[in-house]
Amino acid sequence: MADFPLDSSAIQAARAAGKGVVKHTPITESFVLSERFGGTIVFKAENLQRTGSFKIRGAMNKLHSLGDAVKKGVVAGSAGNHAQAVAFAAKHFGVPCEIFVPAGASLSKMEAVRAYGATLSEGGDTLSDAVAAARVRAEETGMNFCHPFDDPMVVAGQATLGLELLEDIPNLAQVIVPLGGGGLTGGVAIALKQANPNIRIIGVQVRACAPYAGSHPAEGPIVTLADGIAVKQPGDFTRPIIEQFVDEVVVVEEDDVADAMVFLMDRAKLYVEGGGAVGVSALMSKKVVPSATGTTCVVLSGGNVDLGLVPGLIRRNETQRGRRLIAFARISDRPGGLARLLTLFAENGANLIEVEHVREGVQLHVRETGVQVVLEVRGREHANAVLTAVRASGYDIDEVSAK
Protein backbone atom coordinates (compact mmCIF):
# COMPACT_ATOMS: atom_id res chain seq x y z
CA MET A 1 0.00 0.00 0.00
CA ALA A 2 1.30 3.46 -0.89
CA ASP A 3 2.36 5.95 1.76
CA PHE A 4 -0.42 7.88 3.44
CA PRO A 5 -0.46 11.62 2.79
CA LEU A 6 -1.02 12.14 6.55
CA ASP A 7 0.44 9.91 9.22
CA SER A 8 -1.13 8.87 12.50
CA SER A 9 0.93 11.36 14.50
CA ALA A 10 -0.59 14.27 12.54
CA ILE A 11 -4.09 13.00 13.29
CA GLN A 12 -3.30 12.53 16.99
CA ALA A 13 -1.90 16.06 17.08
CA ALA A 14 -5.15 17.31 15.51
CA ARG A 15 -7.11 15.58 18.25
CA ALA A 16 -5.02 17.35 20.88
CA ALA A 17 -5.57 20.68 19.10
CA GLY A 18 -9.34 20.29 19.38
CA LYS A 19 -9.38 19.12 22.99
CA GLY A 20 -11.95 20.98 25.08
CA VAL A 21 -13.82 22.24 22.01
CA VAL A 22 -14.43 19.29 19.69
CA LYS A 23 -16.99 16.85 21.07
CA HIS A 24 -16.60 13.09 20.96
CA THR A 25 -20.01 12.61 19.35
CA PRO A 26 -22.18 9.58 20.08
CA ILE A 27 -22.83 6.40 18.13
CA THR A 28 -26.47 5.32 18.03
CA GLU A 29 -27.87 2.18 16.43
CA SER A 30 -30.69 2.43 13.90
CA PHE A 31 -32.83 -0.58 14.76
CA VAL A 32 -35.29 0.40 12.02
CA LEU A 33 -32.69 0.37 9.23
CA SER A 34 -30.92 -2.69 10.66
CA GLU A 35 -34.18 -4.64 10.58
CA ARG A 36 -35.19 -3.32 7.16
CA PHE A 37 -31.91 -3.93 5.32
CA GLY A 38 -30.10 -6.49 7.45
CA GLY A 39 -26.77 -6.24 9.20
CA THR A 40 -26.04 -3.79 12.01
CA ILE A 41 -26.38 -0.12 11.08
CA VAL A 42 -25.30 2.71 13.36
CA PHE A 43 -25.15 6.49 13.06
CA LYS A 44 -22.24 8.74 13.96
CA ALA A 45 -24.21 11.76 15.16
CA GLU A 46 -21.89 14.56 14.08
CA ASN A 47 -24.99 16.74 13.74
CA LEU A 48 -24.64 17.07 17.53
CA GLN A 49 -21.09 18.42 17.17
CA ARG A 50 -20.11 21.92 18.28
CA THR A 51 -21.32 24.43 15.61
CA GLY A 52 -23.61 21.69 14.25
CA SER A 53 -21.18 19.85 11.99
CA PHE A 54 -17.84 18.03 11.73
CA LYS A 55 -16.18 21.17 10.37
CA ILE A 56 -15.07 22.38 13.80
CA ARG A 57 -12.51 19.53 13.82
CA GLY A 58 -10.62 20.87 10.84
CA ALA A 59 -11.02 24.53 11.78
CA MET A 60 -9.57 24.06 15.25
CA ASN A 61 -6.59 22.13 13.93
CA LYS A 62 -5.91 24.67 11.18
CA LEU A 63 -5.93 27.65 13.52
CA HIS A 64 -3.87 25.82 16.13
CA SER A 65 -1.27 24.93 13.49
CA LEU A 66 -0.72 28.62 12.69
CA GLY A 67 1.02 29.29 15.99
CA ASP A 68 1.60 32.98 16.69
CA ALA A 69 0.58 33.82 13.11
CA VAL A 70 -3.02 33.16 14.09
CA LYS A 71 -3.05 36.60 15.73
CA LYS A 72 -3.29 38.13 12.25
CA GLY A 73 -6.78 36.67 12.02
CA VAL A 74 -8.39 34.29 9.56
CA VAL A 75 -10.48 34.57 6.42
CA ALA A 76 -12.49 31.79 4.79
CA GLY A 77 -14.96 31.09 1.99
CA SER A 78 -17.80 28.70 2.75
CA ALA A 79 -21.36 27.66 1.99
CA GLY A 80 -22.13 27.64 5.72
CA ASN A 81 -20.74 24.89 7.95
CA HIS A 82 -17.06 25.73 7.45
CA ALA A 83 -17.96 29.38 8.00
CA GLN A 84 -19.50 28.61 11.38
CA ALA A 85 -16.57 26.42 12.39
CA VAL A 86 -13.91 28.98 11.44
CA ALA A 87 -15.88 31.79 13.12
CA PHE A 88 -16.19 29.74 16.31
CA ALA A 89 -12.52 28.73 16.26
CA ALA A 90 -11.48 32.34 15.70
CA LYS A 91 -13.56 33.39 18.69
CA HIS A 92 -11.93 30.62 20.73
CA PHE A 93 -8.44 31.90 19.81
CA GLY A 94 -9.53 35.52 20.22
CA VAL A 95 -8.61 36.62 16.70
CA PRO A 96 -10.43 38.53 13.90
CA CYS A 97 -12.41 36.54 11.35
CA GLU A 98 -13.87 37.41 7.96
CA ILE A 99 -16.14 35.02 6.07
CA PHE A 100 -17.20 35.10 2.40
CA VAL A 101 -20.30 33.15 1.39
CA PRO A 102 -22.04 32.61 -1.96
CA ALA A 103 -25.30 34.43 -2.65
CA GLY A 104 -28.28 32.51 -1.30
CA ALA A 105 -26.34 30.75 1.46
CA SER A 106 -28.36 29.23 4.32
CA LEU A 107 -29.86 31.98 6.48
CA SER A 108 -29.62 29.98 9.69
CA LYS A 109 -25.94 29.25 9.09
CA MET A 110 -25.22 32.91 8.36
CA GLU A 111 -26.97 34.04 11.54
CA ALA A 112 -24.75 31.67 13.50
CA VAL A 113 -21.61 33.06 11.83
CA ARG A 114 -22.54 36.59 12.87
CA ALA A 115 -23.34 35.41 16.39
CA TYR A 116 -19.75 34.15 16.71
CA GLY A 117 -18.50 37.64 15.92
CA ALA A 118 -17.25 37.19 12.37
CA THR A 119 -17.59 39.75 9.58
CA LEU A 120 -19.74 38.33 6.78
CA SER A 121 -19.62 39.24 3.07
CA GLU A 122 -21.13 37.75 -0.07
CA GLY A 123 -18.55 36.44 -2.53
CA GLY A 124 -20.15 35.47 -5.84
CA ASP A 125 -22.71 32.84 -6.82
CA THR A 126 -20.90 29.62 -5.92
CA LEU A 127 -18.68 28.14 -3.23
CA SER A 128 -15.71 28.47 -5.60
CA ASP A 129 -16.43 32.19 -5.97
CA ALA A 130 -16.58 32.64 -2.20
CA VAL A 131 -13.32 30.77 -1.68
CA ALA A 132 -11.62 32.85 -4.38
CA ALA A 133 -12.88 36.08 -2.78
CA ALA A 134 -11.58 34.95 0.60
CA ARG A 135 -8.17 34.11 -0.86
CA VAL A 136 -7.90 37.59 -2.40
CA ARG A 137 -8.90 39.19 0.90
CA ALA A 138 -6.26 37.19 2.76
CA GLU A 139 -3.57 38.39 0.33
CA GLU A 140 -4.73 42.01 0.69
CA THR A 141 -4.77 42.00 4.49
CA GLY A 142 -2.12 39.47 5.49
CA MET A 143 -4.76 37.42 7.29
CA ASN A 144 -4.55 33.62 7.23
CA PHE A 145 -6.59 31.88 4.55
CA CYS A 146 -8.48 28.76 5.70
CA HIS A 147 -9.68 26.53 2.86
CA PRO A 148 -12.86 24.52 3.58
CA PHE A 149 -11.29 21.19 2.59
CA ASP A 150 -8.12 21.39 0.46
CA ASP A 151 -5.64 21.78 3.30
CA PRO A 152 -3.61 19.05 5.09
CA MET A 153 -4.32 20.54 8.53
CA VAL A 154 -8.05 20.69 7.84
CA VAL A 155 -8.06 17.09 6.59
CA ALA A 156 -6.08 15.95 9.64
CA GLY A 157 -8.70 17.56 11.85
CA GLN A 158 -11.56 15.82 10.05
CA ALA A 159 -9.64 12.53 10.37
CA THR A 160 -10.13 12.64 14.15
CA LEU A 161 -13.68 11.47 13.51
CA GLY A 162 -12.19 8.25 12.19
CA LEU A 163 -10.29 7.74 15.44
CA GLU A 164 -13.55 7.94 17.36
CA LEU A 165 -15.14 5.33 15.09
CA LEU A 166 -12.26 2.95 15.77
CA GLU A 167 -12.62 3.45 19.51
CA ASP A 168 -16.42 3.16 19.66
CA ILE A 169 -17.17 0.40 17.10
CA PRO A 170 -14.95 -2.64 17.65
CA ASN A 171 -16.41 -4.63 14.73
CA LEU A 172 -16.47 -1.79 12.21
CA ALA A 173 -16.76 -3.16 8.67
CA GLN A 174 -18.08 -0.31 6.51
CA VAL A 175 -18.41 3.47 6.76
CA ILE A 176 -20.69 5.62 4.60
CA VAL A 177 -19.57 9.26 4.47
CA PRO A 178 -21.02 12.37 2.77
CA LEU A 179 -18.61 13.49 0.05
CA GLY A 180 -18.26 17.13 -0.93
CA GLY A 181 -14.75 18.47 -1.43
CA GLY A 182 -13.29 15.38 0.18
CA GLY A 183 -11.92 16.70 3.48
CA LEU A 184 -14.12 14.57 5.73
CA THR A 185 -14.24 11.48 3.55
CA GLY A 186 -10.51 11.61 2.87
CA GLY A 187 -9.60 12.20 6.49
CA VAL A 188 -11.82 9.40 7.77
CA ALA A 189 -10.49 7.04 5.08
CA ILE A 190 -6.87 7.71 6.05
CA ALA A 191 -7.52 7.18 9.76
CA LEU A 192 -9.45 3.96 9.19
CA LYS A 193 -7.26 2.42 6.50
CA GLN A 194 -4.17 2.98 8.65
CA ALA A 195 -5.78 0.88 11.38
CA ASN A 196 -7.53 -1.69 9.20
CA PRO A 197 -7.27 -1.67 5.38
CA ASN A 198 -10.25 -4.03 5.20
CA ILE A 199 -12.74 -1.44 6.44
CA ARG A 200 -14.80 -0.40 3.43
CA ILE A 201 -15.22 3.35 2.83
CA ILE A 202 -18.08 4.64 0.66
CA GLY A 203 -18.48 8.30 -0.30
CA VAL A 204 -21.92 9.66 -1.18
CA GLN A 205 -22.62 12.59 -3.49
CA VAL A 206 -25.91 14.14 -4.62
CA ARG A 207 -26.93 14.11 -8.29
CA ALA A 208 -26.94 17.92 -8.56
CA CYS A 209 -23.21 18.02 -7.82
CA ALA A 210 -21.17 14.83 -8.09
CA PRO A 211 -17.70 15.57 -9.52
CA TYR A 212 -16.08 12.53 -7.89
CA ALA A 213 -18.63 10.37 -9.70
CA GLY A 214 -17.83 12.02 -13.03
CA SER A 215 -20.74 14.49 -13.14
CA HIS A 216 -19.74 18.11 -13.65
CA PRO A 217 -22.46 20.69 -12.86
CA ALA A 218 -23.09 23.67 -15.09
CA GLU A 219 -21.83 27.11 -14.20
CA GLY A 220 -23.72 29.12 -11.62
CA PRO A 221 -25.45 28.28 -8.33
CA ILE A 222 -26.40 24.70 -7.50
CA VAL A 223 -29.89 24.17 -6.11
CA THR A 224 -29.96 21.17 -3.80
CA LEU A 225 -31.02 20.17 -0.30
CA ALA A 226 -27.46 18.93 0.13
CA ASP A 227 -25.90 22.39 -0.19
CA GLY A 228 -23.20 21.51 2.35
CA ILE A 229 -21.60 19.03 -0.10
CA ALA A 230 -22.27 20.96 -3.32
CA VAL A 231 -18.60 21.32 -4.27
CA LYS A 232 -18.01 21.48 -8.01
CA GLN A 233 -14.29 20.67 -8.09
CA PRO A 234 -12.31 18.27 -5.88
CA GLY A 235 -9.22 19.71 -4.25
CA ASP A 236 -5.65 19.16 -5.36
CA PHE A 237 -4.85 17.65 -1.97
CA THR A 238 -8.08 15.72 -1.39
CA ARG A 239 -8.62 14.19 -4.84
CA PRO A 240 -5.67 11.74 -4.63
CA ILE A 241 -6.76 10.68 -1.13
CA ILE A 242 -10.28 9.88 -2.33
CA GLU A 243 -9.00 8.06 -5.40
CA GLN A 244 -6.59 5.94 -3.37
CA PHE A 245 -8.44 5.17 -0.16
CA VAL A 246 -12.18 5.37 -0.84
CA ASP A 247 -13.58 2.07 -2.08
CA GLU A 248 -16.67 3.40 -3.86
CA VAL A 249 -18.51 6.63 -4.66
CA VAL A 250 -22.29 6.52 -5.14
CA VAL A 251 -24.80 9.19 -6.18
CA VAL A 252 -28.24 9.78 -4.68
CA GLU A 253 -31.23 11.71 -6.00
CA GLU A 254 -32.76 14.84 -4.50
CA ASP A 255 -36.00 13.10 -3.50
CA ASP A 256 -33.99 10.41 -1.71
CA VAL A 257 -32.26 13.10 0.34
CA ALA A 258 -35.63 14.59 1.33
CA ASP A 259 -36.89 11.15 2.35
CA ALA A 260 -33.80 10.54 4.46
CA MET A 261 -34.11 13.88 6.27
CA VAL A 262 -37.71 13.15 7.24
CA PHE A 263 -36.87 9.57 8.22
CA LEU A 264 -34.15 10.81 10.57
CA MET A 265 -36.51 13.31 12.18
CA ASP A 266 -39.40 10.88 12.44
CA ARG A 267 -37.75 7.58 13.32
CA ALA A 268 -34.32 8.47 14.73
CA LYS A 269 -35.28 11.78 16.38
CA LEU A 270 -32.24 13.39 14.78
CA TYR A 271 -32.24 16.75 13.01
CA VAL A 272 -29.89 16.36 10.05
CA GLU A 273 -29.26 18.64 7.07
CA GLY A 274 -29.42 17.40 3.48
CA GLY A 275 -25.67 17.03 3.05
CA GLY A 276 -25.49 15.13 6.31
CA ALA A 277 -28.32 12.77 5.39
CA VAL A 278 -27.01 11.50 2.05
CA GLY A 279 -25.55 8.36 3.62
CA VAL A 280 -28.96 7.35 4.94
CA SER A 281 -30.50 8.12 1.55
CA ALA A 282 -27.93 5.81 -0.06
CA LEU A 283 -29.11 2.96 2.19
CA MET A 284 -32.82 3.70 1.81
CA SER A 285 -32.53 3.89 -2.00
CA LYS A 286 -30.42 0.69 -1.99
CA LYS A 287 -27.43 2.37 -3.61
CA VAL A 288 -25.41 0.90 -0.74
CA VAL A 289 -25.89 -2.49 0.90
CA PRO A 290 -24.99 -2.91 4.60
CA SER A 291 -22.12 -5.19 5.44
CA ALA A 292 -23.27 -8.77 6.04
CA THR A 293 -20.81 -9.08 8.92
CA GLY A 294 -19.66 -6.42 11.32
CA THR A 295 -21.15 -2.95 11.62
CA THR A 296 -22.01 -0.39 8.98
CA CYS A 297 -21.67 3.18 10.23
CA VAL A 298 -23.37 6.12 8.53
CA VAL A 299 -21.79 9.50 9.28
CA LEU A 300 -24.43 12.19 9.82
CA SER A 301 -22.07 15.04 9.09
CA GLY A 302 -24.21 18.06 10.02
CA GLY A 303 -27.47 19.29 11.47
CA ASN A 304 -27.73 22.92 10.35
CA VAL A 305 -31.14 22.85 8.67
CA ASP A 306 -32.98 26.01 7.68
CA LEU A 307 -36.24 25.91 9.61
CA GLY A 308 -38.07 27.18 6.52
CA LEU A 309 -37.36 23.88 4.74
CA VAL A 310 -38.99 21.68 7.35
CA PRO A 311 -42.71 22.37 6.66
CA GLY A 312 -42.21 21.57 2.97
CA LEU A 313 -40.42 18.32 3.80
CA ILE A 314 -43.21 17.29 6.14
CA ARG A 315 -45.96 18.18 3.64
CA ARG A 316 -44.23 16.19 0.93
CA ASN A 317 -43.82 13.19 3.19
CA GLU A 318 -47.42 13.24 4.41
CA THR A 319 -48.71 13.50 0.84
CA GLN A 320 -46.56 10.55 -0.24
CA ARG A 321 -47.87 8.48 2.66
CA GLY A 322 -51.48 9.35 1.87
CA ARG A 323 -51.91 11.52 4.95
CA ARG A 324 -52.82 14.68 3.04
CA LEU A 325 -55.84 14.93 0.77
CA ILE A 326 -55.98 17.85 -1.65
CA ALA A 327 -59.40 18.18 -3.28
CA PHE A 328 -61.43 20.61 -5.37
CA ALA A 329 -65.16 21.00 -4.77
CA ARG A 330 -67.94 23.00 -6.41
CA ILE A 331 -70.34 24.43 -3.82
CA SER A 332 -73.30 26.79 -3.71
CA ASP A 333 -72.22 30.42 -3.67
CA ARG A 334 -74.72 31.23 -0.92
CA PRO A 335 -74.33 31.80 2.81
CA GLY A 336 -73.61 28.51 4.58
CA GLY A 337 -72.42 26.64 1.49
CA LEU A 338 -68.81 26.35 2.62
CA ALA A 339 -69.76 25.75 6.26
CA ARG A 340 -71.84 22.69 5.34
CA LEU A 341 -68.96 21.21 3.32
CA LEU A 342 -66.46 21.75 6.11
CA THR A 343 -68.87 20.18 8.59
CA LEU A 344 -68.99 17.07 6.41
CA PHE A 345 -65.21 16.84 6.45
CA ALA A 346 -65.16 17.11 10.24
CA GLU A 347 -67.91 14.52 10.68
CA ASN A 348 -65.84 12.08 8.63
CA GLY A 349 -62.67 12.59 10.67
CA ALA A 350 -60.73 14.82 8.24
CA ASN A 351 -58.84 17.75 9.72
CA LEU A 352 -58.89 20.96 7.67
CA ILE A 353 -55.44 22.46 7.09
CA GLU A 354 -56.14 24.97 4.33
CA VAL A 355 -59.06 26.23 2.23
CA GLU A 356 -58.94 28.53 -0.79
CA HIS A 357 -61.73 29.94 -2.97
CA VAL A 358 -61.11 29.35 -6.70
CA ARG A 359 -63.26 31.30 -9.14
CA GLU A 360 -60.86 31.78 -12.06
CA GLY A 361 -59.80 29.15 -14.60
CA VAL A 362 -62.59 26.65 -13.80
CA GLN A 363 -66.08 26.17 -15.23
CA LEU A 364 -68.69 27.22 -12.69
CA HIS A 365 -72.40 27.93 -12.76
CA VAL A 366 -73.49 31.48 -11.95
CA ARG A 367 -74.44 30.51 -8.38
CA GLU A 368 -71.42 28.28 -7.78
CA THR A 369 -67.95 28.83 -6.37
CA GLY A 370 -64.99 26.52 -6.28
CA VAL A 371 -62.92 25.70 -3.22
CA GLN A 372 -59.66 23.82 -2.93
CA VAL A 373 -59.05 22.18 0.44
CA VAL A 374 -56.06 20.52 2.05
CA LEU A 375 -57.09 17.93 4.60
CA GLU A 376 -55.16 15.82 7.06
CA VAL A 377 -56.34 12.20 6.89
CA ARG A 378 -55.23 8.90 8.38
CA GLY A 379 -54.18 7.31 5.10
CA ARG A 380 -55.28 6.35 1.61
CA GLU A 381 -58.28 4.33 2.77
CA HIS A 382 -59.53 7.15 4.97
CA ALA A 383 -59.08 9.67 2.13
CA ASN A 384 -61.24 7.54 -0.16
CA ALA A 385 -63.90 7.23 2.56
CA VAL A 386 -64.01 11.01 3.02
CA LEU A 387 -64.44 11.62 -0.72
CA THR A 388 -67.17 8.96 -0.94
CA ALA A 389 -69.10 10.47 1.99
CA VAL A 390 -68.93 14.00 0.56
CA ARG A 391 -70.10 12.84 -2.85
CA ALA A 392 -72.93 10.89 -1.27
CA SER A 393 -74.13 14.16 0.27
CA GLY A 394 -74.46 15.69 -3.18
CA TYR A 395 -71.18 17.55 -3.57
CA ASP A 396 -69.13 17.56 -6.78
CA ILE A 397 -65.62 16.92 -5.45
CA ASP A 398 -62.44 15.63 -7.07
CA GLU A 399 -59.02 14.78 -5.74
CA VAL A 400 -56.27 16.91 -7.30
CA SER A 401 -52.50 16.47 -7.53
CA ALA A 402 -50.42 17.27 -4.46
CA LYS A 403 -48.98 20.73 -4.00
Characterization of the model:
- With 403 residues, this protein is of the alpha/beta class.
- Among the domains are: 24-50 and 159-312, Rossmann fold; 322-399, ACT domain (Alpha-Beta Plaits), CATH 3.30.70.
- Helix content is 41%, strand content 20%.
- The strands form 3 sheets. A 6-stranded mixed β-sheet has the order 1-2-10-7-8-9, sandwiched between helices. A 4-stranded parallel β-sheet has the order 5-4-3-6.
- Strand 7, helix 8 and strand 8 (200-206) form a beta-alpha-beta unit.
Report a brief summary of the structure.
The protein has 403 residues and is an alpha/beta fold. It has helices spanning 8-17, 31-37, 55-65, 81-93, 107-115, 127-141, 152-168, 183-195, 238-245, 254-267, 274-284, 309-320, 337-347, 380-392, and strands spanning 27-29, 40-45, 74-77, 97-101, 119-122, 144-145, 172-178, 200-206, 248-252, 295-300, 324-332, 351-358, 368-376, 396-399. It is built from 14 helices and 14 strands.
